[in-house]
Amino acid sequence: MQSQRNSSIETLRILSMLMIISHHFIVLSQVKTLELPISVNKLFSDLLLRPGGKIGVTVFFLISAYFLCQETVNTKRNIKRIVALDAQMLFYSLSITFIFLILDYKLVSTTTIVQSFIPLISRMWWYPTSYIIFLLLSPFITVSLRRIGKKNHFNLVLIVSFLWGLIAGLLPKIYLDLSSQNMIIFCYLYILTSFYVWYLKPVSRRFSLTLIGLGLFLIWSNILVCSYLYQKTGSSLFLHLEDSFISHEWKLPVAFTAFGLFSLFVSFQYYSKSINVIAKCTFGVFLIHNHPVSSSFLSHTLFNMSNTFNRISYPLIAISIILLVFILCILIDLIRQQIFKITLDRHINYITAVIFNTLFVLKHRIQQLMYTHEL
Predict the structure, then answer these.
(1) Which of 1, 116, 183, 238 is least surrounded, with the fewest CB atoms within 10 Å of its CB?
(2) Which helix (H) or strand (E) holds 52?
(3) Rounded mean pLDDT, 325-348
(4) pLDDT tens profile 256-273
(5) pLDDT confidence of residue 1
(6) Same-domain check for residues 250 and 356
(7) 3-class SS at 201?
(8) Separation in Å, CA 64 to CA 10, 33, 138, 262, 272
C-alpha cells in the first residue's frame, strides 16, 4: 500500500503553482510595471506577484527532487512517470489547440498546431520537457552521486554553488552556460537537494524563515533601489537590473527563498485528503494556463489590466483573477483525471512494460553488435 503524502509538502506544491500563476498574471497583464514610478499597485505587482514565478518553479522541482533522491533507483518506474507526464502534455496540447481553433482560430498559429502533436520534443512547455529529460538521467545521476560519497558530493556542492550560486547567482547577465531554462538547472538543484537530504540534519524552522527573509530582502531591495534609480536617471541599465535577481531559477535570492520555503514546509507533518487531491492537479494547472494559446487568450482577457491597474481595487481584482484561473484549471484537470481513469490508467503498466522491454532488447542487441565487432 502506498504511503500517504505529507500534506504540508502538498500545500507547498499548491502555493508554488499559485506563485507561478501570479508571475504569469503580471507578465501578461499588458502593463509594464517595472517602468512605472513607485506606487501601491506597482509594489503589489513587482514585490509580491512578479517574484513568484522563478521561486515557484524552483520550489516545484525541489519537491520532486526531495522524493526522487529518497527512492531506490528504478528506471522502469521513471519510464512510467514519463508516459503519464507525456500523456497529460499531449492531452492538453491537442485539446486546448482544438478548442481554440473552433472558438478563435486567429490565436492559433501553424507552429502551435504542429507543436500540439509533439509537445514533448517541440518544447511547448519548457518545464515538463526538461523534467522528463532529467527523469531519464536521474537514475544514473543518483547512483553517481551515491558512489562518489559524502566528501566528493560536498566538494561538488561547493563548486556548483560557487559557479551558479555566487557568480551567476548574484551578478547580472552572467550565466556560465545556464543561459536558458533547461535540464542543467534541475541537475544543479538536485545536487544541492540530495546532499541536504542524505547527509545533513533538517534545518530549524528559524533558519528556514531566515533564508526566506534574506531571499525576499535581496529581491525586494534590488527592485526598489533600481526602480528609484530608473525613475531618477531614465537609464535603461537600472530597468534591466530591476528584476535581475528573479530572472532565473538559479539566482541566489530565488534559491534562498525557495530552499527556505521547502525546508519550512517539510518540517511540518499532517494529512488532508482535500489538499492532496488539489495538489495532484497542479501539473495540469501549469499545462492549461501556460499553453501558448491559453497565455495569448489570458493576456487579452482576464489578465489584461491596462484599464484596471490604476484602480484602488486592483490588488483585490488581481488576487481574484489568479484564484479564479487556479480553480478553473483544477476543475478541468479533475475531469481529465476521470477520463484517464477509464483510458490510459488502465493500460499504463502495459505501455510501460512494452517500452521498457523494447529498450532492454535494443540494449542487448547493441551489446551483441559491439561484442561481435570486438571479435
Answers:
(1) 1
(2) helix 52-68
(3) 95
(4) 999 999 999 999 999 999
(5) 40
(6) no
(7) coil
(8) 11, 33, 11, 11, 19
In terms of DSSP H, where are the helices of 104-204? 110-117, 126-160, 168-170, 183-199
- Same-domain check for residues 362 and 245: no
Residue reference for cell 550565466: 175
Q: Residue 33 and residue 169: Cα distance in Å, rounded?
A: 24
Quote the CA–CA distance of 329 and 2 in Å, as a whole number.
Answer: 27
Percent of the chain clearing pLDDT 90 (strictly above): 77
Considering only residues 285 and 73, tell me which one the structure prediction assigns the higher pLDDT. Answer: 285
Handedness of CA 11, 263, 285, 78 (dihedral sign): negative
What whole-number distance in Å separates Cα of residue 215 and Cα of residue 207? Answer: 12
Contact (Cβ atoms closer than 8 angstroms) between residue 90 and residue 275:
no
To the question of pTM greater than 0.85 for the whole model, the response is yes
Handedness of CA 367, 368, 370, 374 (dihedral sign): positive
Domain that includes residue 361, residue range: 348-375
Nearest to 215 by CA among 54, 7, 2, 350: 54
Single-letter amino acid, residue 13: R
Does one domain contain both 33 and 136? yes
What's the pLDDT score for residue 375?
Answer: 52
Q: How far, in Å, CA of 109 to CA of 190, rounded? A: 36
Angstrom CA distances, 332 to 92, 213, 288, 338, 356, stand at 10, 35, 9, 10, 31
